[in-house]
Design goal:
alpha/beta, 45% helix, protease
Length: 292
């Protein structure tokens, strides 16, 4: 990716870590509860770029918003943010690019884009959706409009999932921004309301549609960048999408694929919807809820 000319977003904060808490094994959550095995599976599935696993099972809501740790250093002129690491700087250039692209798309439709905030943290912290842990991977929290990212995840993406490269990292961030777009559109609130009335299998199927649309939105962003994408970048993104497909992760973790347990989509579907966004550059083509 050619990021030298990209301006960094000022919508970020750096957290010192600490203050989080582990996911309590065996504690019952949501409808019917979930035991140790379910928590392990959720942890693995949440290691990809989706919503906090607590929100997937109906625990994290706006009514449970918690304050983050006191040692939070904002960017954007709101205080001294300290020296950023190279990976943080790259992440903020990618975030800045998404802000410019989505700003133009929203403006063209007669509305105004409100950016998300990228919260960097090491290890663990508190989010508006509960505990944030690096083991759960990056996620978007609709309760406080933030993307939570421990950048060590990018090392996992490269070494464990075989998806290295800066565009693979960009895909992660653009996917989470896609969830923010869904939040601004009111889609996430609609889905939460629908999931409350559905069976577990039906709820999972609806969640897959949420994740695939975020993949498509990531593709829309990439299609609308100017002079950023280089040869080989698209292939990096498609490899990353396949690496974090539910079937890929399930087979690696438990040796079998259980489609009714999908919450993010198969490798093929994730690639399909990312490519649809890349090919069209049009968010209207990302209707995973009614599209083929």
């Amino acid at each position: 990716m050619r990021l030298d000319d990209e301006a960094e977003s000022t919508n970020y904060e750096v957290r010192s870590g600490g203050g989080g808490f582990g996911l309590p094994i065996g504690l019952a959550f949501g409808r019917g509860g979930i035991g140790c095995g379910g928590i392990v599976v959720l942890g693995i599935l949440a290691l990809v770029m989706g919503i906090n696993p607590l929100s997937l099972i109906g625990v994290a809501t706006e009514g449970q918003m918690q304050q983050g740790p006191a040692d939070t250093r904002p960017g954007g002129g709101s205080g001294e943010a300290g020296e950023k690491s190279p990976v943080q700087s790259t992440s903020l250039k990618i975030l800045g690019s998404t802000e410019r692209v989505w700003g133009k798309i929203f403006e063209a439709s007669g509305s105004r884009y409100e950016p998300t905030i990228l919260a960097f943290y090491p290890g663990n912290t508190q989010s508006g959706c509960g505990a944030a842990q690096s083991a759960a991977g990056p996620f978007y929290c609709p309760a406080d409009k933030r993307i939570y990212l421990d950048t060590s995840f990018f090392d996992e993406l490269s070494t464990r999932f075989g998806a290295p490269g800066d565009f693979a990292q960009a895909y992660v961030i653009a996917h989470e921004v896609g969830h923010h777009i869904q939040d601004l559109e009111g889609r996430l609130a609609q889905v939460r309301q629908q999931q409350a009335r559905l069976s577990e299998g039906q709820s999972n199927a609806l969640q897959v549609k949420v994740e695939l649309q975020a993949d498509c939105y990531a593709g829309v962003w990439a299609a609308n960048t100017k002079g950023v994408i280089e040869p080989g970048d698209i292939e990096e993104g498609l490899r990353a999408a396949a690496a974090v497909g539910d079937d890929t992760l399930q087979k690696a973790s438990q040796g079998v694929v259980v489609p009714e347990g999908f919450t993010h989509g198969s490798a093929a579907d994730r690639q399909k919807w990312l490519k649809k966004g890349l090919d069209s550059g049009d968010p209207r083509m990302c209707d995973t809820f009614g599209g083929a």
